[in-house]
Amino acid sequence: MSSPLAGRTAGPIPPTVRALVPLLLLLGAAVSTAAPAAAAPPPTSGTDWDQIAACESSGDWHTNTGNGYHGGLQIAPSTWRAYGGSRYAARADLASRAEQIAIGERIAQDRGLAPWPNCGDQGAPSSDRALPRRSPAPHRATPRRTAAPHGTYTVRHGDCLSAIARRADTTGGTRTLYTLNKERLPHGPDEIVPGQRLRLR
Length: 201
Known about the structure:
By secondary structure, this protein is an all-alpha fold.
């Protein structure tokens, strides 16, 4: 049985369609070359992981303060497992410095330094630090946050408990800060929200 299309030929191409073909080919080429560039992972070579660790954990690669993040780079267990950390140790604080950096590199290849919102900039390659920010977040432009005179702090966007404890120089660090504020943090130390008022002492 012959196909209903058998014997048919393409008719002449109208001049308007012929004129559009080069434009469509050019547009298709532009889209195909632009798409891979947008999907490329951020470059991480030259990242100073010791600087990030100094900011995140005072450089203690084996810290476990009970805040839900572990090791020098303060990596959550779910993130540690997702990026292959289980092959080294159950948690980041149980792995060596080099092993933690290897997982940090994997995270950064995938997500840049965004997972370290308060400390990533300090470890960025020097050329990245020298470049002006394309669109600075409003909270980065504000002056350094200070505690109220009576020992409280109002959480701002981008804060985490460990960074607040470090800035406020809370004796006992994150663990003490969480203990002081357990009633305000019923879902754990990772669930702070902008506007919350925390006790520092």
